[in-house]
Amino acid sequence: MDSSFSSSAAGLGAVDPQLQHFIEVETQKQRFQQLVHQMTELCWEKCMDKPGPKLDSRAEACFVNCVERFIDTSQFILNRLEQTQKSKPVFSESLSD
């Protein structure tokens, strides 16, 4: 399920609150899984030269650094988007006036 479904369902007003909450929780889970997948793919390509039975210390340090930078960047982007949303009027509210 994507966020457009939950947005349109929320706009109907007749949606069961438990169902709406369930959809929101599942959407958050899906987004989290997508972030983990992106992070795994990015860091694997960046840090893994040749797969072996054990990680060497260089690859391990690279993975740790990559994950930390990915999390920092994701948090920065989310904070920036949140600030942008707060500073702009919501389009749907301006239509209802």
Automatic annotation (TrEMBL):
<keyword id="KW-0653">Protein transport</keyword>
<dbReference type="GO" id="GO:0015031">
    <property type="term" value="P:protein transport"/>
</dbReference>
<keyword id="KW-0862">Zinc</keyword>
<protein>
    <recommendedName>
        <fullName>Mitochondrial import inner membrane translocase subunit</fullName>
    </recommendedName>
</protein>
<keyword id="KW-0811">Translocation</keyword>
<dbReference type="GO" id="GO:0046872">
    <property type="term" value="F:metal ion binding"/>
</dbReference>
<dbReference type="InterPro" id="IPR035427">
    <property type="entry name" value="Tim10-like_dom_sf"/>
</dbReference>
<keyword id="KW-0813">Transport</keyword>
<feature type="domain" description="Tim10-like">
    <location>
        <begin position="22"/>
        <end position="83"/>
    </location>
</feature>
<comment type="subunit">
    <text>Heterohexamer.</text>
</comment>
<keyword id="KW-0143">Chaperone</keyword>
<keyword id="KW-1015">Disulfide bond</keyword>
<dbReference type="GO" id="GO:0005743">
    <property type="term" value="C:mitochondrial inner membrane"/>
</dbReference>
<dbReference type="GO" id="GO:0072655">
    <property type="term" value="P:establishment of protein localization to mitochondrion"/>
</dbReference>
<keyword id="KW-0479">Metal-binding</keyword>
<dbReference type="InterPro" id="IPR004217">
    <property type="entry name" value="Tim10-like"/>
</dbReference>
<dbReference type="Pfam" id="PF02953">
    <property type="entry name" value="zf-Tim10_DDP"/>
</dbReference>
<keyword id="KW-0999">Mitochondrion inner membrane</keyword>
<keyword id="KW-0472">Membrane</keyword>
<comment type="function">
    <text>Mitochondrial intermembrane chaperone that participates in the import and insertion of some multi-pass transmembrane proteins into the mitochondrial inner membrane. Also required for the transfer of beta-barrel precursors from the TOM complex to the sorting and assembly machinery (SAM complex) of the outer membrane. Acts as a chaperone-like protein that protects the hydrophobic precursors from aggregation and guide them through the mitochondrial intermembrane space.</text>
</comment>
<keyword id="KW-0496">Mitochondrion</keyword>
<comment type="similarity">
    <text>Belongs to the small Tim family.</text>
</comment>
